[in-house]
Amino acid sequence: MDHTYSDSRFEQSEAKRLKSESRGGSPRPSASDRTPDNSSSTSPVRKKGVAMVVKKAPKRPMAGGPKAAKKFRSQRDGSSPEESEGGSEGGPYCLCRGSDDHRWMICCEFCDDWFHGECIKMTKEVGENLIEKFVCPNCTDSKVFTIYKKACTLPSCKRASRLTQTPQSAFCSSEHSQMWWDRIISRLPKGKTKSGLNDQLSQDEIMAILASDLSEVSAEGKWGIKADPFGLSTEGNGVKDEAMPDQITDEERIFVDMASSKKKQLEDEIAMCNKMLTLIELAQDRRRAAIAAGKIGEDICGYDQRLDAVSARDVFSAYVASPEGQLAFEQSQLVDPLGENSFTRGMCERKRCKPHSGWQKLLAAGIKHQIREMTEQAEEVGEEERAVRDAAGERLRRRMAEGNRVEVL
């Protein structure tokens, strides 16, 4: 009896559902649909542990308008466009909140709304060829924005370049690359340019550079003349860097000799300043030794009179050349000037001495400042000398590359 009542109720609910579907409305799930009776169910039982394969739906088209997207969905679902029509296909769309009036439209990747190209000031050619990801003005902010593809370098072309292909190219095709170069070459003067007026090359000169190995593409992707254009072309000719200075002119040789002499003088003065710093350290060691021996207190000045030669280059040079100076630097120790093993002879023994106040730091700071200045001067002189030698070497390599030399038979 219970089974008969359950079957009758199920038949009544099915009749109501079929009647509602015939009227065009969506069926309301009945109680039996929500909790079907296990005894009356005829659906096959799925085995446990069997996975169902779900195919990923293809990506919908980004451009073409809502009707194109509707056609794509109907083809994907296997239904006709008339069956897939709904109340939302007619709009409103875009910033103008209009309908799909057969104008070109593009879909936003975030809000899935469609926008007329005229309303967002985007042509169909740009939208279909140069848009990687479109974000509408309503969704655009500092973190989310439209991403464009790199356009072809030819100004009149609105297609994407071949940067993702191998080999990479800034043009969409080889024809546009050739067209771009033809335009660049045609703008240059045909005849020989007047030297001194500008740095513009003629058509023959630029074509000669392109045909040679004098040009290169930098790491930034810019084309230009090599920093050492004749270096590679002369390696096979036996040209070595050691032979470059022999090709300098008399004027260049005089400049190079003066620069070498100046640099040598600065190097000698820097070495002398380093010895001054060494003498200051030896004077501090002698003061600490006298304090450790109990001869003077820590409040004693301890300035050594031989430090008067510091910062006086001629006087200090004479002290370094004297037997006392040579012995001090050989033993790395300052001793009694008279050789009687006195701890404090020649040392200032005043307390809180104002004339020598802070002599340990002040003398060393002054010498270090002089070393820095002379080091910078030596680097400048060396750079000037190197520039002259490099220019002479570059001139020789250019002559060797051009073949402008006379062979004596």
UniProtKB/TrEMBL annotation:
Protein name as catalogued: PHD-type domain-containing protein
Basic and acidic residues biased stretches: 1-22
InterPro entries found in the cross-reference section: Spp1/CFP1, Zinc_finger_PHD-type_CS, Znf_FYVE_PHD, Znf_PHD, Znf_PHD-finger, Znf_RING/FYVE/PHD
GO biological process, any: positive regulation of DNA-templated transcription
Domain PHD-type: 91-142
Region annotated Disordered, chain positions: 1-89
Subcellular location: Nucleus
GO molecular function: zinc ion binding
Keywords: Metal-binding, Nucleus, Zinc, Zinc-finger
Main location: nucleus
Gene Ontology CC terms, in alphabetical order: Set1C/COMPASS complex
Annotated Gene3D superfamilies: Zinc/RING finger domain, C3HC4 (zinc finger)
Provenance organism: [Torrubiella] hemipterigena
